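Q: I'm teaching a short session on how sequence maps to structure, and I want students to see two examples side by side rather than one. Could you give me a first protein with its sequence written out and its structure tokens following it? Keep the formatting plain so it prints cleanly on a handout.
A: Of course. Example one:
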Amino acid sequence: MVATGPNVRSVDVEDRVLYDPEDHAEVELGVKSYVLLRERDLHAVAASRVAKDDQTGLYL
């Protein structure tokens, strides 16, 4: 994640997310492309802030 909106609950900046590659929008700003997603379209979030006893590090 590069940025999140003000009402996002489960995702933070720097999290890695799993999503359906056919269910998103892309926007190009300058030379970079960004994927736009709604929080409800995420399948999983991998975050280093997840407790160490969590086996996968994936949650949603």
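Q: Perfect. Now a second example for contrast.
A: Example two:
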Amino acid sequence: MRWLAEVHVRLRPGIADPEGQTIAGGLRSLGFDEVHEVHAGKLLRIAFEADDQAAADAALESMCRRLLANPVMETADWELRAAGETAGRVGS
């Protein structure tokens, strides 16, 4: 069965986010004075095969732990759905 996932990787609370700080400063310099904080992260869209939802979740957890996110500095969560479905399941 084909699965589609959106994986969101973010820095853990308390980890410095220089990219987010740079973006926030740039927005303020463009006149968006109401911007106080920006947090940068990654969005990865992954299409893959798995036998069922449990196997798909396990595969995503392994992908995140082994390559997509640094568990010391980052968290990862995902939205998972079978190809062709409109709504999905959220995991982390």
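Q: What should students look for in example two?
A: Point them to this: The mean pLDDT is 94. Also worth mentioning: The two ends are 21 Å apart (CA to CA).
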